[in-house]
Amino acid sequence: MMALRFGVAAAVIAAVALLFTFTYPPVQTVQRGFRGTAMDEIFQPAMVAEKISENKIPPYLPRLPAAGPKASAVYKNVQVLGDLSVGQFTRLMASMTTWVAPKQGCSYCHNTQNMADDGLYTKVVARRMIQMTQNINENWQSHVQNVGVTCYTCHRGNNIPVNLWFNPKPAGNGAVMQTSLDKNHPDPLVGDASLPGNPFTPFLEENANIRVNSTTALPDQDHQSIKQAEWTYGLMMHFSTALGVNCTYCHNTRAFADWNQSTPQRATAWYGIRMVRQVNNDYLMPLASVFPDYRKGPTGDVAKVNCTTCHQGVFKPLYGVSMAKDFPELGGVVQAAAK
């Protein structure tokens, strides 16, 4: 009897505690499709207010004219930004310090006794990250459009962006699409659903097809399994969590696969998947020999990006406010934004 009473009391306490995890009204909606299609975006004002406070633009130095000697003529070993004036170069370096290493200062990337020295791995990585940012702004306007990105978009004052991922240790035979990695263990990366917890390796590193069902009515060459659908759902749940939206942000849920009934944001997401895949394969993974072992994952890979790295819970990073327009040295998109 005592055990029963104890069990009932524990259940009541657990139920009360669970109530405090729920979100409460008011819940508001925004219509995103034609009337009658139930394409509504659902949000809670209190949560939006919280996200707004987390996505404020930090103050930064005003732009400087391209006057005076070039950085490459004054400083040694300037491999990427040598065409900037000394003033422009110094402003960007100071800004990067604020965005990435506000506590450590210049010494996070530089040997302050010899600023030209490449001995610190962080300097080598930072140089490559500048090139990555320039590439995104110049060649991926199909995704970043005229807003663009800066170092702050991902770092937000942290040495290492908070939202990164590593490849997990393989299970079974090690084939990513043929194992049940992390399945049935609710994971916040996939909306706390019991789906594979790492949909990133097959889709944001590798080039696996994102499919739910076959595109033909009868068995053909297009075989899609329930297991593949689970991986796809895991990726879609990640999108939803990363952007703080529901399915109707991109899809008409009466016909998920139909592009003609989808919103323009679905095309933006399509390009975003390919942009992230290129960032991981062309800029981050090749740095494996540069990063020290303590910065690598359980399989020896480097940290890679996903949608949350930039978006951090909102549909546009920093709610669409462009810092890049004031840093034209970080890519071509800012020139379009300034027009």
Structure explained in plain terms:
There is one protein chain. The protein is mainly alpha-helical and 339 residues long. Among the domains are: 67 residues, Orthogonal Bundle (Photosynthetic Reaction Center, subunit C, domain 2), CATH 1.10.468; 149 residues, Orthogonal Bundle (Photosynthetic Reaction Center, subunit C, domain 2). It has 12 helices and 2 strands. Strands 1-2 form a two-stranded antiparallel ribbon. β1 and β2 form a beta hairpin. The longest helix is centred in the last third of the chain and has 21 residues. The radius of gyration is 23 Å and the shape is globular. The C terminus is likely disordered.
Helices and strands in order:
Elements: H1 2-19, E1 28-31, E2 40-43, H2 45-54, H3 71-74, H4 86-100, H5 121-139, H6 141-144, H7 151-155, H8 200-205, H9 226-243, H10 264-284, H11 307-311, H12 333-338
Antiparallel strand pairs: 1-2
The secondary-structure element order is: HEEHHHHHHHHHHH
Q: From the helix content, strand content and strand pairing, which structural class follows? A: mainly alpha
Choose one word for the global shape.
globular
Count of beta strands: 2
Number of helices: 12
The percentage helix is 25-40%
CATH topology of the domain at 163-311: Photosynthetic Reaction Center, subunit C, domain 2
Write down the overall mean pLDDT: 85
Side by side, the strands of the main sheet go 1-2
Q: CATH superfamily of the domain at 163-311, called what?
A: Photosynthetic Reaction Center, subunit C, domain 2
Main beta sheet: strand number and arrangement? 2 strands, antiparallel
- Which regions are unreliable across 5 or more consecutive residues at pLDDT < 50? 173-180, 334-339
Tell me the β content. under 5%
CATH architecture of the domain at 163-311: Orthogonal Bundle
Q: What is the CA-atom radius of gyration, in angstroms?
A: 23 Å
What is the class of the domain at 163-311 in the CATH system?
Mainly Alpha
